[in-house]
Amino acid sequence: MTKRLTFFSVLSVTIALAFTILFAQAVPQANATATVDPSDLQAGDLIRGEGFSAVYYYGADGFRYVFPNSKAYFTWYDNFDDVLWLTDSDMSTVQIGGNVTYKPGVRMIKINSDPTVYVVEAGGVIRSIPSESVATALYGSNWNTMIDDVPDGFFSNYTMGSTIEFASQYDASAEEADAFDIGSDRDLQIYTIVTVSDSGFSPSSLNIEAGTSVRFVSDSAEKHGASADDGSWGTGTLNEGGHFTRNFEAGTYTYHDKYDSAVTATITAQ
Questions:
Q1: Nearest to residue 54, comparing CAs of 95, 23, 14, 77?
Q2: Backbone angles phi, psi at 30, to 5 degrees
Q3: Which of 106, 202, 248, 256 can bridge 269 by disulfide, Cβ–Cβ 3.0-4.6 Å?
Q4: Hey, is 19 helix, strand or coil?
Q5: Is residue 181 within 8 Å of residue 114, measured between CB atoms?
C-alpha cells in the first residue's frame, strides 16, 4: 500500500486572507522615500503600493503577479531590498495577472486538507511523492522540515503532474538552477501594443502568438475603448494615456471602438 507523507509540525493557515496578513507583516513598513512611474517599470521588477504591503512581480506581459505569502517569496528572493514603490493610484493601473508559485526545487508543498506532499517543477507543475524513502533520497533525512502548507485556495495555481516513483525522476538542484527568474518559469511573453486614437486602432489587424498579451493604449484626448463584438471582453473607457492589457489565447477576436462601432479591428492569435 502506498504510504502518504505527513508533516504535523508545519503551521497550518486555514484561509487565504490569513496568509496575506502574514506576508504583509513580513514586508518592511517604512515610508517610501520615492515612488516610480509605471512607465519606468521593467520586466522582473518587484513592486508594491504605498498603502498596502503586498509585493508583486512585474512581468514582461505587463501584468503584476502577487506572492501569496512570505514563504513563497523567499524561495525566489533573499530580502525586500529591491522592491520599488508606486503610488496606490499608479498601482491600480497595473493589472493583476495571477499568483506566483513556489520556485522549483527549493521546497516541497502540501495543502491543508490533504497530507500528500509534492515537489515543484517548472511552470508550477507539482508531482506527488509516494513514500518517505523517496523524500529522503531527494531532500535528505530532514525532508520533513522542507515542506510548506499551501492554502487550498492557492492550490489551483499549480498543475498536477505524474507521481515521483523513484528519486532519479526528479533533481531538486537542477530544477532550482533552471528557474532563474519568475518570468521564464511562467513563460511570460512581452506584450504587444495597440494604439487607440481618433483615427482608429493601430494596427487594425494584428497577428500574435497564442498566449501573448496585448496592451491597448490611448493617445487621444477623446474617450475611446475596445469592445469585443461578441461582448466577451472590453477595455472600458480609455482616457488619454490610459491602458488596458489582455491575454489572448488561440482564436480570432474582432472588436470595435465602444464609442464608435464603425471603427473595427481584429486580433488573430495562433
A1: 23
A2: -60, 150
A3: 248
A4: helix
A5: no
Burial class for 48, CB neighbours closer than 10 Å (0-12, 13-18, 19+) = buried
**Mind listing the pLDDT tens digit for each residue in 158-205?**
999 999 999 999 999 999 999 999 999 999 999 999 999 999 999 999
C-alpha cell of residue 173: 538542484
Distance CA 264, CA 256 (A): 4
The set of residues, in sequence order, having a beta carbon less than 8 Å from that of 170 and lying 6+ positions away, is 119, 121, 127, 138, 164
Identify the pLDDT of residue 39.
86
Provide CB contacts within 8 A for 40, sequence distance 6+.
none
> Residue 82 region, left (φ>0) first, then alpha (ψ -120 to 50), else beta?
alpha
Strand pairing category for 251-257 and 260-269: antiparallel
Confirm whether pTM is higher than 0.90: no
| DSSP letter string, 185-196 | HHT----EEEEE
